[in-house]
Predict the structure.
Amino acid sequence: MLNFTTLPPLSLYIHYPWCAQKCPYCDFNSHAVPCSSNQRNDQQRDEQYVTALINDLEQELPDIWGRTIQSIFIGGGTPSLIQPEAMQHLLSQIHARLKVSPMAEITMEANPGTVDQIKFAEFRSAGINRLSMGIQSFDDQLLEKIGRIHNGQQARQAIERAQQAGFDNINLDLMYALPGQTLKSAIDDIQQAIAFETTHLSHYQLTLEPNTLFASQPPSLPDDDLSYEMQSQCQHLLADAGFHHYEVSAYARADKQCAHNLNYWQFGDYLGIGAGAHGKISDAARQTITRRWKVKHPQSYMNGFLSAEGSLSAEGSVLAEGSLLAQGSLSAMIGGEQQLSRHDIGFEFMLNASRLTGGFDSELFYRQTGLPITQIEAGLKQAVELGLIEWHLHHIKPTERGLQYLNELQAIFL
């Protein structure tokens, strides 16, 4: 039995599943836009998908009624492919149904080559107040090796155009240890990113994830020593430029940490809508924490959540009366649901919170989980003995060794 005295902060995640093309390293739920796609088809697909998202949200409302949304994150896929009119409609419908904090951070992921200055301005006008841009590198040869559709010049132009459109809170995603990358190239990428004076930077190592093209056809990557040197020297450059390293791969200027991701790492609650989206909701009345995830394939997702009354499927056919939504068949809309056990809760909390370079107070564990710190005490003591964690009174923090061997630290609580 849990013992919630207050509920965690609540965020909203929205998944947009389409990309211009699938990158060979990507293991996210993303799907290449069909080759036959054109502007009319894109507009129709976006309208239908937004309708499905709104219906999805409607199904979630009873579980979070009256709670305030602290942040919204629109990820993918490549959400910057969406038509601005569809984005404006989506956000207006969300505000009509949810209590969204007037100070809410609303982030959209964007890739160079999919947005021009006019489109950036329209997204800003729709209510997006933070961008997360998938730059990955400014080196043309490296970008080609990892299957990106943009080049370095387009990446630089995209950042400048976003700033000219009024975005003053921008994250840049950069990867290191790319195929054939040198230390000089990794440093040059960081220096170019710093020069734009954006507010946040995500800097993470390329890893070969299962079920990706790179996993089946592995490229030649820098060895561990060179990868560590890239990470170390880039961290020093970021620190000198005024970026605070607050999470394993996240760096922010003063007061510009990503509020949405911080809520994940601090084991907050979040709704997840969209194809393959995940959510985690705490219930004070039942004293439970439940995870729910949606079906992954975009067409199956839309077929489930589009209404029966004249809505079109992605192929343009009208859904018949007695559709899945009309029948209330949640099985075709919800991919799965799990009520977390006490052990699950302790593990998932540490899976997230151990990523924070500054650690956390034991009070946060009780507040977010409804459990006493004794639930994970055995694991904490083992991690201290191994030099992976420092535990001083009520504060728990990963050591440098713990951050370097994060997988080993997290596995202790499994």
Remarks:
- The mean pLDDT is 91.
